[in-house]
Amino acid sequence: MSAWSGGDVQGGTRAEGEYRVTAKGGSELQSAISKAGWRIIPLLSVGYLFAYIDRVNVSFASTQMNVDLGFSATVYGLGAGLFYLAYALVEIPSNVLLMRFGARRWLAWIMIMWGLLAISMMFVKTPTQFYSVRFLLGLSEAGFFPGVMYYLSTWFPTKQRGKAMGLFYVANPLAVFVMGFISKPLLAMDGLYDLRGWQWMFLIEGIPPVLVGLALLAFLPDRPDEVKWLSEGERESLRVAVAEHPQKHEDHSAGGMLAVLADKRVLLLTAIYLLTLAAGTTFILSAPAILMERTGWDIGHVGWLISAGGLTAAAFMLIGGWITDHRGERYTVLYVALGFDVIGYLMIAAAPSAWMVAAGLILSQIGRGAHSTAQVALWADVLKDRRMAIGAAAISSVANLGVWLLPIGFGMAKDATGGYTFGLWAFPVMHVLAIVATVVLMRMVRVKKA
Q1: Which of 402, 88, 411 is nearest to 272 (CA)?
Q2: Burial class (CB within 10 angstroms; exposed 0-12, middle 13-18, buried 19+) of 10
Q3: Helix axis angle, 171-187 to 23-56, nearest 10°
């Protein structure tokens, strides 16, 4: 059976999707999903890997850049966070434009623009320039993640969607692994051709998105009905399967922003994502400096630790996606993963030894990987069609407002106290609140189904 089959596609009734297919139809559906998985997701995953690298590589660059340019932790936190303000402002318009112009052209344009702006970070000299380029980078990159979330929902049925989104989203922690692995060699290029190491980092890591954007323009299909690598039977089986949805009997005629935000389930999904994304991103944006302070290790050893954390998160992102699809529900994985986050961040904040801090990082990344997949799969369980396109962007937009604000407060706390310990206590508290929101969401969904 294909790795993309998700189990019971051949006949019978799904617990979630509630659609029936014949043995032949099931075989064609399995084949269509397998082909789509291998032809679409690798290219999108590479794109997202560089998206995440180019938004948070500033964390490693800051260990040199802040000293060279005289940036305080508050200045750095404001600049690092401004990316997410811009990101939040244009995610929804970006997804509307994606639906108008097609995924291929719009996602390719996004990648090419952010690659060029990522390169321009090497020319930053003043706080104002830093703020401006980070803001423009956020504007250019916004829409890629929610756009892909919507795009995948048009290619993969509910039962396979957690796996598909997990395989795409795994690029996020893999980007952390790559950064931890290559950052020390890039910073060590310091002085080559009169460029500082942090400038080489922005240059070398900004070129690949431009190339991947050109590849998207050449190879990414907009819709299943336009590709030649699916047979007529495969296209029809995929169309029927994707059309079925756990919430298919709901009224989806009101696709406007206000109607989406008025849905209490969407508000709870937004709260969970805001709390976890803001905490996780704020930590990653300062992870090298935090871990150097908490462990006493140099940038090389901290880089290896961050790489190990990224690889761990990637593994558990895939495991989490497989478990949620296999179980037919997302909440158990979400609860367990958020619990790991709470324990991990408590250890980072309070552990008395370097190795216990390192263990806390690994535990937090286990949680981060698993809860990320469970969350984005829940979006597609609740939302459909235009509501999914706008809803995914709305959830991500509101959450990214939190990611804009938290790094600023975190930097101010560091400047005020002279260390990171005080600010670190916010992270476990935020994940406890996410657990509470998940409990409320689960009860609300179950009452509505009943």
Answers
A1: 402
A2: middle
A3: 30
Residue 311: which residues within 8 A CB-CB, separation 6 or more? 173, 174, 177
Q: DSSP string covering 374-397, please?
A: HHHHHHHHH--HHHHHHHHHHHHH
Q: Which residues contact 97 (CB under 8 A, 6 or more apart)?
A: 106, 143
């935000």: which residue's tokens?
261
Contact call for residues 312 and 366 (beta carbons, < 8 A): yes
Taking alpha carbons only, the member of 27, 26, 37 closest to residue 3 is 37
Q: Could you write out the DSSP letters of every residue in 237-293? A: HHHHHHH--TTTTS-----SHHHHHT-HHHHHHHHHHHHHHHHHHHHHHHHHHHHHH
Q: Name residue 137's amino acid.
A: L
Write the DSSP assignment of 416-430 as a string of letters.
HHSSSHHHHTHHHHH
The torsion region of residue 278 among left (phi > 0), alpha (psi -120 to 50) and beta comes to: alpha
In angstroms and rounded to an integer, the radius of gyration of the C-alpha atoms of the chain is 21
Tokens representing residue 425 in the block:
């206590």
For the stretch 151-167, pLDDT in tens is 887 888 877 776 787 77
Q: Give the residue among 404, 397, 395, 390 at the shortest CA–CA distance from 376.
A: 395
Q: Inter-axis angle of helices 73-101 and 144-153, to 10 degrees?
A: 40
Distance CA 324, CA 206 (A): 35
* Cβ atoms of 184 and 303 closer than 8 Å: yes
DSSP state of 142: T
Dist CA 167 CA 171 (whole Å): 8
Whether the CB-CB separation of 389 and 106 falls below 8 Å is answered with no
> Nearest to residue 354, comparing CAs of 417, 443, 291, 425?
291
**pLDDT at residue 244, rounded to an integer:** 65
How far apart CA 68 and CA 411 sit, in angstroms, is: 18
**C-alpha span between 159 and 167 (Å, rounded):** 14
- C-alpha 88/C-alpha 417 separation (Å) is 30
The tens digit of pLDDT for each residue in 391-450 reads 776 787 788 787 888 888 888 888 888 888 888 999 999 999 999 999 998 888 776 665
Rounded to whole angstroms, how far apart are CA atoms 331 and 377?
11
Give residue 119's pLDDT.
94
For residue 426, report the phi and psi dihedrals to the nearest 5 degrees: -65, -30
11: left (phi over 0), alpha (psi -120 to 50) or beta: left
Query: Amino acid letter at 437?
Result: A
126: left (phi over 0), alpha (psi -120 to 50) or beta: beta
